[in-house]
Amino acid sequence: MTGTDVARISGRERLRAKIETALSGLWYGTARPPLWARLGERLFLRIAAARRRRFMSGARKSLRMPVPVIVVGNLTIGGTGKTPLVLWLCEWLKTRGLRPGILSGGYRGNSSQWPRRVGPESDPETVGDEAVLLARRSGVPVMADPLRTRSAAELLKSGVDVIVCDDGLQHYQIERDVEFVVIDGARGFGNGHCLPAGPLREPVERLTEADFVIVNGETGLDLRECLTMRVAPVELRNLADPRRTRPLNEVKGWRAHAVAGIGNPQRFFDTLTDLGIDFVPHALPDHVEIEPAWLEFGDDLAVIMTEKDAVKCESWAAPNFWFVRVAATFEPHVVEGLTTRLAALLRI
Q1: Using N-to-C axis directions, what is the helix angle for 129-138 and 82-95, rounded to 10°?
Q2: 298 plus 340 within the same structural domain
Q3: Distances (CA, A) of 142 to 121, 178, 223, 323
Q4: 24 domain-assigned
Q5: Which of 31, 77, 151, 250 makes the best surface tag, with the fewest CB within 10 Å?
Q6: Using one digit for the tens of pLDDT, what is the confidence trace for 192-208?
Q7: Among candidates 215, 202, 191, which has minimal Cα distance to 24?
Q8: Average per-residue pLDDT in the chain?
Q9: CB 295 within 8 A of CB 303
Q10: Can you give the residue range of the structural domain that contains 144?
Q11: Pair type for strands 226-238 and 245-246
Q12: pLDDT for 57
């Protein structure tokens, strides 16, 4: 994030932006974490391990749902490609004649009452941007609530026969039948440390317990039995008038401002570079509530953003606002192996 972009952000979000930038430099840099961070990591690991042991031993009960539960999560803080994978899974489940539903944590939603049923027209400020995006793209029931056990009970009332839990790997309150762990192939595990010294929520060894390890993009990581996924752009869609679209082969040479308020904005910027778009990058804090003044750049260039950011800007979008629609893709042989094993695990 440039100094100019930080200056556009006011109050608490500006402070959050500076903290995120500093932590990203620590987590994905080569320097050894400072002493305070390493001591904090030790404490974090003890607390996290003790919590997990209580669930695994039965000292704390996990709720067993009457339908299969698929958990999609990651080991690191920030974006890895979970949302596109959740959407892909829902589409696959529907092709099998099932009625999936999605549990979302409603991250950054400010609702005073949970759980909240999420629809395409729900307010992202209330229920979170990811929940609204999932509702719009999936066409399945979506329930948002920081407390997954409460929202799961409500989701069942929609008649779903399989639950997909978005970002639920560390939420052990609900028993799961299948675990997917998504890894950003470019950023990997950062410096390999757990919070706060590094980006890991759990040690890398946790991967051995997952049913599927999905790597988003090419990677230099030495991982056995992982599957490669690619989150590919599909088209550009106008935010003020969604009927207006641009195929990817027509955007080469566009000049634009690129806005990304996601966990790994560089991945979005790399996508635009691959499309041949000439842009000025503007990285914002993850899940930030974007204000109109932040996107006033004093020129008539197009403003291109992620789909997750777009759901927060559509009520005041200008005619030159566009977003990139993306989708998870796998090689055919990967799809065959993945779906065969997934069907066996779900007994469908």
Answers
A1: 30
A2: no
A3: 12, 19, 33, 23
A4: no
A5: 31
A6: 999 999 999 999 999 99
A7: 191
A8: 94
A9: yes
A10: 56-229+329-346
A11: antiparallel
A12: 93
